[in-house]
Amino acid sequence: MVSSNIREDIFYIKEVEEISTKSEEQVILVFMDDNNVLHTLYGESGGTRWAVIPPLNIVLDWLISRGITIKEAVIIHNHPEEPWFSGIIPSQDDIVLTEVLKWQLALLGIKLVDHIIVSPNDRCSLCKMELYDYGPFVANGFEIKRFIYCFLIQFKFIFENELALNDIILLLEDNLDKLKNYYDRPVLKRAFMDKPQDESFKNNLFMIKTADPLIEMLINFLLKLRDGKRLKVKVDRIMPLGGMLQKRLLCGV
Fold first, then answer.
1. Can you spell out the DSSP letters for 51-89?
2. How far apart are CA 99 and CA 112, in angstroms?
3. Which candidate, 166, 176, 220, places its Cα nearest to that of 198?
4. Stronger pLDDT, 6 or 201, i.e. the higher one
5. CA angle, 43 as apex, 41 and 46 as ends, to 5°?
6. Residue 83 pLDDT exceeds 70
7. What are phi and psi of 25, to 5 degrees?
């Protein structure tokens, strides 16, 4: 199906029409490619009260098998049961998982437009309810490194001949292990603890040499991070790099 507005046109897709009346929860990711054609990817059904959004490794396999460049996406899932006193109420898990997927897809150059929940008699948009937006997030350097590490573990096959990336992953793994006992604790408890230092992380990171521009950008970004300093990360700054990564994923260039 060719679309001019993914948020509106998804309701004309047969798969989306079908899940609104299903007796079990089901998640569908609807993607729009560069030619404005819509594609669907199903998640696993988990019963009447939960379902599974397709994890990043499944999304990667799907992208490779289709060989298409994706620019936008919408999450859509159903609520088979509604509370007697209200219509559709998004759960906290719905909100949190939407935010996580926003950043995972941004690192592929894909804009997550909305998360829409449907039922036999109703529909709601997290965006219109102001439970989701395309704004930045604020995190300290340790939290950002942990997110990058989890992302790289799933993406390292794209750079299978690049030893530098394996070195970065090993350095991150060791660094996060040394720091987690401090940064995973509440701020008030940290006040009575010695702040850990790991100067060897940046020293060893600086020594890594690579001819790959994406890995070089990653190294430079990690070198600038400070573990305890909070940083505002904007999606629009991530998207161009994500587009390069998606191109690498599909074309190997």
1. EEPPPHHHHHHHHHHHT--EEEEEEEEE-S---TTSS--
2. 9
3. 176
4. 201
5. 160
6. no
7. -70, 145
